């Protein structure tokens, strides 16, 4: 063998060695799922003849959660109701959608499950599927006629749920199918507020490309830039900075004020978000401005170094 062939063989062996644990997990997971289904089937066989309505419905939920299509079909044959609710008020279709069980979603829809039925919290199967990041079940439900903008809990639509989770593929698909990118939920926020505030750059860009006004006002007169300046603690600092750059590049007004008279700079300063403050200053934010209580960004921060930066002469 030539030196090049030896090197290529070595690289192939490295790749196979690294992939082996993952490859071994796939059949193991499938085996575990099948074993769980077998256990449920055996348990149900012992009670099937005299099973109560509650027991049959509980079997349907258990089968759905484990992806046991045959047992779910049997439970339906034995009288399980697709209108049954679990202790949280969710129906079997929502369980299947949230778990990404495409075959079960098809089975339930073909068996008459109302596609836009709401759980007690107001959520639909499409909402639960989008929230859980299940692209294939999202596609199936939309193809079968699910209403893309039907809101779930707190007035949140599937698109808003996808934006909150940072799921670009689902957000893109829902937008393609006509979802409203400007929908305002029950807390007076929209998809871009969640995406930007949680540092999800691709979803934020997608929403802007869909026509969302970068300077639109939401609850408390906040803009997407202000929400991002006061970003969630779960968001990565670098991710948030990139989102802020995008918003500013797309024309976000750096010194807009909320209903307290505060700018994005003041919001970032109060929360001690140093990277956000530095970016806003670099983009021309006016650190001399004061809010309705007469406080400047320097007054609001608890960090000495940041206060010095904000107090320094231009």
Automatic annotation (TrEMBL):
Keywords: ANK repeat, Repeat
Family annotation (Gene3D superfamilies): Ankyrin repeat-containing domain (1.25.40.20)
Keyword Nucleotide-binding: no
Record-linked InterPro entries: Ankyrin_rpt, Ankyrin_rpt-contain_sf
Signal peptide coordinates: none
Entry superkingdom: Bacteria
SUPFAM superfamilies tied to this protein: Ankyrin repeat
Ranges for the ANK repeats: 88-120, 121-153, 154-186, 187-219, 220-259, 260-292
UniProt name for this protein: Uncharacterized protein
Organism field: Methyloceanibacter methanicus
């Amino acid at each position: 063998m030539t030196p090049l062939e030896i090197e290529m063989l070595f690289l192939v062996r490295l790749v196979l060695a690294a992939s082996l644990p993952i490859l071994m997990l796939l059949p193991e997971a499938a085996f575990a799922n099948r074993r769980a289904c077998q256990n449920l089937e055996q348990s149900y066989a012992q009670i099937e003849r005299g099973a109560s309505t509650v027991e049959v419905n509980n079997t349907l939920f258990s089968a759905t959660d484990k992806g046991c299509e045959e047992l779910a079909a049997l439970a339906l044959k034995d009288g399980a109701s697709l209108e049954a609710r679990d202790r949280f008020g969710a129906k079997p279709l929502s369980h299947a959608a949230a778990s990404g069980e495409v075959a079960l979603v098809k089975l339930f829809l073909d068996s008459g499950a109302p596609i836009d039925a709401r759980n007690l919290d107001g959520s639909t199967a499409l909402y639960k599927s989008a929230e859980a990041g299940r692209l294939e079940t999202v596609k199936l439900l939309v193809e079968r006629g699910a209403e893309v903008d039907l809101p779930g809990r707190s007035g949140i639509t599937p698109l808003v749920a996808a934006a909150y989770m940072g799921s670009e593929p689902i957000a893109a698909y829902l937008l393609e199918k006509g979802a409203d990118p400007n929908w305002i939920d029950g807390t007076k926020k929209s998809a871009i507020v969640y995406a930007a505030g949680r540092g999800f750059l691709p979803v934020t860009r997608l929403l802007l490309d869909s026509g969302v006004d970068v300077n639109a006002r939401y609850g408390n007169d906040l803009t997407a830039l202000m929400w991002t300046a006061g970003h969630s603690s779960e968001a990565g600092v670098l991710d948030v900075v990139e989102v802020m750059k995008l918003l500013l590049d797309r024309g976000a007004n750096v010194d807009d004020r909320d209903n307290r008279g505060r700018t994005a700079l003041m919001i970032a300063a109060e929360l001690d978000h140093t990277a956000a403050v530095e970016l806003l200053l670099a983009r021309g934010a006016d650190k001399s401005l004061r809010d309705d209580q007469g406080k400047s960004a320097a007054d609001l921060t608890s960090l000495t170094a940041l206060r010095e930066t904000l107090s320094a002469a231009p």
